[in-house]
Automatic annotation (TrEMBL), chain A:
Entry-linked InterPro entries: Myotubularin, Myotubularin-like_Pase_dom, PH-GRAM_MTMR6-9, PH-like_dom_sf, Prot-tyrosine_phosphatase-like, Tyr_Pase_AS, Tyr_Pase_cat
Domain Myotubularin phosphatase residue range list: 94-469
Gene Ontology biological process terms from the UniProt entry: phosphatidylinositol dephosphorylation
UniProt family annotation: Belongs to the protein-tyrosine phosphatase family. Non-receptor class myotubularin subfamily.
CC per GO annotation: cytoplasm; nuclear envelope
Catalytic site positions: 306
Stored PANTHER family: MYOTUBULARIN-RELATED, MYOTUBULARIN-RELATED PROTEIN 6
Protein origin, superkingdom: Eukaryota
Coiled coil: 479-513
GO molecular function, one term: phosphatidylinositol-3-phosphate phosphatase activity
Annotated positions binding substrate: 243-244, 306-312
Protein name: Myotubularin related protein 6
From TrEMBL, chain B:
Matches recorded under PROSITE patterns: PPASE_MYOTUBULARIN
Protein name (Swiss-Prot/TrEMBL): Myotubularin-related protein 9-like isoform X1
Highest taxon listed in the record's lineage: Eukaryota
UniProt GO molecular function: protein phosphatase binding
Entry GO CC: cytoplasm
Family: Belongs to the protein-tyrosine phosphatase family. Non-receptor class myotubularin subfamily.
Organism of derivation: Phyllostomus discolor
Pfam families (alphabetical): Myotub-related (PF06602), PH-GRAM_MTMR6-like (PF21098)
Record-annotated Myotubularin phosphatase domain positions: 123-501
GO terms under biological process: negative regulation of autophagy; phosphatidylinositol dephosphorylation
């Protein structure tokens, strides 16, 4: 056990590292003959079983893991001690990699209708928003201040995405404090300003991402939703995404089903159904499609909110932008999207991921759902994304790892107070360094067909994301990676093309020399194609055409003992103890 | 021609409504003896053509002075035709109904199909059993080719030649055949050279209530063990539950008793067959056609149709048989009741798992020919109707489709190890149910001989191996993988075969585009590699 990791080395010298921050729960099971079983569940869905021979040791490990996995202070998190050998200027450049002002400029704001507001420059109006917010040019500061007082947590309507061609906008906010009848003129003005900022369509949609029942219940607490009669030119719409508590227990059910030993096909599908997980994913996706359609088909601006406007709103706004704008489907663009709609607008990463020892009721897989929706899109549009599945999984790994500063804290203000940019490193430059690893070899950047994605959300287009929830159960996955091999082929093609160019340039160089009379006739004779010396000089000869010895292929044809049908096979040879001997090691591990 | 009586109208003006795979098409509709034609212009050459045999069910609806016909095809496509004139609609519908359900084999389309570029008899010369025996003979001399079934008298569903233990003579085979249902005595299915063991298949022994025994049958299985690697034991994989196998004794069947077959152990792995399998297929296709259902409905229907559970059972039984040979060094005999359905499913999948040669394009075609067509899977009975037909007889069962699905799962888990792609599996599925080729006609070699299929029709294999088809059928990423493929059979690893079951609701273009792109990447490299570098001069020192 190290200060940050749990390290296990098995008898084959294979190392397994588990970050303490990744540990979601530790469980000590009843004592068996071979020792005391210890089950560790991780936030990246890895489950590890240890058998510790001595109960005393087991108890000690259990207690220390409990302590180490739950930190009370931000300063004790891994990011504050993680040292990737970057000097200060490199670290600073890493943090400057994603520049949101630059991003708004790319979208085309500020412009004649939208401007940068300095109302929240000192976090005076809303603590959970970033300092820099874009609002309609005609919305004056008093209107903004007035509106923020009428919105839960002061999260008044601001710009999230601006569609340059359609001049329509996606805006976001929190629920209004309308109760049963309260009104706020400033808020009404602000919404009107948003709809006026769209010259093409004076109607705007107000999308409440909650189920209608939940929104109505909120009215009793003095909150609620917009009354269509009070606001001019709005069309109000519920889209029915469940709240963080429903999502948390849904995932819990899903994991329980998957963790079952000897799961049958029928149990799997009925478990998948009763967990409701895919239903929730579809709801999020449908809401995002609603947004994209409103902008593309009706040219209408959209205002999105849920209760506080940092969970469902972030999901829907970011996915909607992803459908509309191919930039967000690039590696860099996806980072920008996460920085904008999740990090800067105050999705409470630390609470939702349980970085610190806090209220377990605040933990919820909202961001995981977003990643899963993106994965479903990559499945439906295999050529539309620059990144691959590994990229999504890596990001998921790091929202829990606390290794980098990006996802620490719950809002920008808190992050500034923690001085994350001085004390921790940013994740993004590290991901960009491994660009090759996260690239989708089938990506076609120029294809106009994928300008706007129109996914089909028929139920059977949603599948269980095995690579996420069983990332570490290697036996469940395809034994050969198509992605890897195509990437390699692409690289080789590029290399060959480069070689060709080199050779061509050499040819032209030599031809020039020939003109200069440097090249003699005999020399020309010796370079005819049939010349045997030529063949050996071809530089790509040494390359194998197909990378047969791909590292990933080593798993293929793996041991049938790994698979479940081998359980039957025990009937074959009951006399011979086949696998049992492994249990007498110091600790047995199955992960 | 007798078809003319069935054709009520020859021509009508019609429009083919757009589906996920094609845009709408308007023109003249013609009904011929075997086809439905739609030509956009009178003299146009690009006809839309549908083989009438592939129509599984037809639904007509008239409104005003036009009608709509919905054709549900055996390959799970759904087509809609709008026809002008109520009378014309009804006539076309009745003609299609009558023509698509003709039973006669020798008037079926393969006997009339004469494509350009193919000669009759091409690819029929290929005798998978003889060529497979040549391979076995190189590995061991424990087996011989027997012509005991030359005139199909011993076993009507076996081919003329079979591979049997060398130590057993033809007379003993005849006795053993009488002891097995339908005369299907144990024959070699696959010889596993690496472990020196054999995979056999047969039908159930006719033990009956009186517990009969047959010395020659016992001798035959004994000879198998004697011919295998020294000390090899045997496993009998019965594809029925122990209970069902026991009950079969009441109707004259049964399963091998331990005492009578020393060295052989019995394992029961119940696999679904017959009507239940067909129902499972029908329900899955029904669920896949419903675009309006909620997520919960879809998942619960996917669960309750049990199709993926059947895939799992088939794959894990095949893995068990393969593991018995590869890891335990045992000989394996597979049988159910008749030995023509789930038995073939298990033996053919086990070979695919173990044998790298059967994963090549040619090897897989040989496997299908040897282990399904020649081995007497009754294609005509099993594939008479697909999932849409209302006329259900008790003989239909999508056993072959289940096999193709299992192969697809294998291909997904080992995307580089199969030389063929999804395209070949889809083509085999389509041709098994309705085809212009003669390969899947009839129920056995005997029937095919009587109908002169080999001389009067074209073989599917020669059709498939024409060069224009190759890109669709082959796997661009194939690399020979010499080891056994052990697939994961966990429910999380099994997927619904979308390319087949959702072909009606999902546009195939995107996956085809990806396929094309992969081909480009792969062939780009190849052309680059083979491109002669015209004049690359040696660098001057």
């Amino acid at each position: 056990m190290t200060a940050t990791h749990l390290l296990f080395i098995d008898s084959h010298q294979k190392e397994t590292w588990i970050l303490h921050h990744h540990i979601a729960s530790v469980e000590k099971l009843a004592l068996t003959t071979s020792g005391c079983p210890l089950v560790i569940q991780c936030k990246n869905f890895r489950i590890v079983h240890f058998i510790v021979p001595k109960e005393r040791d087991c108890h000690d490990i259990y207690n220390s893991l409990l302590q180490l996995s739950k930190q009370a202070k931000y300063e004790d998190l891994y990011a504050f001690s993680y040292n990737p050998k970057q000097n200060d200027s490199e670290r600073l450049r890493g943090w400057q990699l994603i520049d949101l002002a630059e991003e708004y400029k790319r979208m085309g704001v500020p412009n004649s209708n939208w401007q940068l507001s300095d109302a929240n420059r000192e976090y005076k109006i809303c603590e959970t928003y970033p300092r820099e917010l874009y609002v309609p040019r005609i919305a004056s500061k008093p209107i903004i201040v007035g509106s923020s007082k009428f919105r839960s947590k002061g999260r008044f309507p601001v710009l999230s995405y601006y569609h340059q061609n359609k001049e329509a906008a996606i805006c976001r906010c929190s629920q209004p404090l309308s109760g049963f009848s309260a009104r706020c003129l400033e808020d009404e003005h602000l919404l009107q300003a948003i709809s006026k900022a769209n010259p093409a369509n004076r109607y705007m949609y107000v999308v409440d991402t909650r189920p209608k029942l939940n929104a109505m219940a909120n009215r009793a607490a003095g909150k609620g939703y917009e009354n269509e009669d009070n606001y001019s030119n709005i069309r109000f719409q519920f889209v029915g995404i469940e709240n963080i508590h429903v999502m948390r227990s849904s995932l819990q059910k899903l994991l329980e089903v998957n963790g079952t030993k000897g799961l049958s096909v029928n149990d799997f599908y009925s478990g998948l159904e009763s967990s409701g997980w895919l239903r929730h994913i579809k709801a999020v996706m449908d809401a995002a499609i609603f947004l994209a359609k409103a902008i593309m088909v009706e040219n209408a601006s959209v205002l999105v909110h849920c209760s506080d406007g940092w969970d469902r709103t972030s999901q829907v706004c970011s996915l909607g932008s992803l459908l509309l704008d191919s930039y967000y489907r690039t590696i860099k663009g996806f980072m920008v999207l996460i920085e904008k709609d999740w990090i800067s607008f105050g999705h409470k990463f630390s609470e939702r991921c349980g970085h610190l020892d806090g209220d377990p009721k605040e933990v919820s897989p909202v961001f995981t759902q977003f990643l899963e929706c993106v994965w479903h899109l990559t499945e439906q549009f295999p050529q539309a994304f620059e990144f691959n599945e590994a990229f999504l999984l890596q990001i998921h790994e790091h929202i829990h790892s606390c290794q980098f500063g990006n996802f620490l804290g719950n809002c920008q203000k808190e992050r500034e107070e923690l001085k994350l940019k001085e004390k921790t490193h940013s994740l993004w430059p590290f991901l960009l360094d491994d660009r090759e690893k996260y690239s989708n070899p089938l990506y076609s950047s120029s294809s106009q067909r994928f300008a706007v994605l129109e996914p089909n959300t028929v139920s059977f287009n949603f599948k269980f994301w095995r690579s996420m929830y069983h990332q570490f159960d290697r036996t469940l996955h395809p034994r050969e990676s198509v992605c890897n091999i195509i990437t390699k082929m692409n690289e080789q093609n590029k290399q060959l093309e480069k070689d060709m160019k080199d050779l061509e340039s050499k040819i032209s160089k030599h031809k020039n020399e020939e003109i200069d009379g440097v090249l003699t006739k005999e020399l020309l004779h010796s370079v005819r194609p049939e010349s045997p010396t030529l063949k050996t000089s071809l530089c790509y000869k040494e390359q194998t055409v197909l990378p047969v010895n791909d590292t990933l292929r080593t798993i293929e044809g793996s041991n049938p003992v790994d698979n479940r049908y081998s359980e039957y096979a025990e009937e074959f040879s009951k006399s011979k103890p086949a696998v049992v001997s492994l249990e007498y090691g110091v600790a047995r591990m199955t992960c | 021609m007798e078809f003319s009586e069935l054709i009520r109208t020859r021509q009508a003006q019609a429009e083919l409504l757009s589906g996920p795979e094609a845009p709408a098409l308007r023109g003249t509709l013609c009904v011929t003896g075997h086809h439905l034609l739609l030509s956009p212009k009178p003299q146009a050459t690009d006809l839309w053509l549908l083989l009438l045999r592939s129509v599984d069910s037809i639904e007509k609806r008239v409104a005003g002075d036009s009608g709509t016909i919905t054709l549900r095809c055996k390959d799970l496509r759904v087509l809609q035709l709008r026809i002008e004139g109520v009378e014309a609609t009804l006539d076309v519908a009745r003609s299609i109904e009558a023509l698509s359900s003709l039973e006669s084999v020798i008037t079926s389309y393969p006997f009339f199909y004469r494509p350009k570029g193919l000669r009759l008899g091409d690819a029929w010369h290929f005798h998978p059993l003889e060529s497979y025996y040549k391979r076995v003979a190189l590995e061991t001399d424990a087996w011989r080719l027997s012509e005991v079934n030359e005139d199909f008298s011993l076993c009507p569903s076996y081919p003329r030649v079979v591979i049997v233990p060398r130590a057993v003579d033809d007379a003993a085979l005849a006795r053993s055949a009488r002891f097995r249902q339908g005369g299907r005595f144990p024959v070699l299915s696959y010889h596993h050279a690496r472990s020196g063991t054999a995979l056999l298949r047969s039908s159930q022994p006719l033990i009956g209530p009186k517990k009969l025994r047959c010395a020659e049958d016992e001798e035959l299985l004994g000879a198998v063990l004697a011919g295998a690697r020294p000390g090899a034991q045997g496993f009998i994989v019965d594809t029925r539950s122990a209970q069902t196998a026991k009950q079969a004794r009441m109707t004259g069947g049964g399963t091998e008793s331990k005492a009578a077959y020393p060295g052989w152990k019995r394992l029961h792995r119940p696999l679904e067959r017959g009507r239940h399998l067909q129902e499972s297929f029908v329900r899955l296709v029904e669920a896949c056609g419903d675009l309006e259902q909620s997520m919960d409905q879809w998942l619960s229907r996917l669960d309750s149709c049990r199709w993926l559970a059947h895939v799992q059972e088939a794959l894990s039984t095949a893995c068990l048989a393969a593991q018995g040979m590869e890891r335990e060094g045992a000989c394996v005999l597979v049988h159910g009741a008749e030995g023509m359905d789930s038995t073939l499913l298990v033996t053919s999948l086990a070979q695919l798992i173990l044998d790298p040669l059967s994963r090549t394009m040619a090897g897989f075609q040989e496997l299908v020919e040897r282990e399904w067509i020649q081995a007497g899977h009754p294609f005509q009975l099993r594939c008479a109707h697909s999932a849409f037909s209302h006329a259900r007889s008790k003989h239909e069962a999508p056993t072959f489709l289940l096999f193709l699905d299992c192969v697809w799962q294998l291909g997904r888990q080992f995307p580089l190890s199969l030389e063929f792609g999804e395209g070949l599996l889809l083509a085999l599925f389509e041709h098994a149910y309705a085809s212009p080729f003669g390969t899947f006609l009839c129920n056995s070699e005997k029937e095919r001989c009587l109908c002169e299929v080999r001389t009067q029709t074209h073989s599917l294999w020669s059709g498939l191996n024409q060069s224009k088809e190759q890109r669709k059928l082959r796997n661009p990423l194939y690399v020979l993988n010499p080891s056994a493929l052990w697939p994961s059979v966990e429910p999380q690893s099994l997927r619904l075969w979308q390319g087949l079951f959702l072909r009606q609701t999902r546009p195939p273009e995107r996956s085809e585009e990806v396929w094309e792109k992969v081909w480009q990447i792969v062939t780009d490299e190849k052309t680059e590699d083979s491109r002669p570098v015209v004049s690359a001069p040696e660098p001057q020192p």
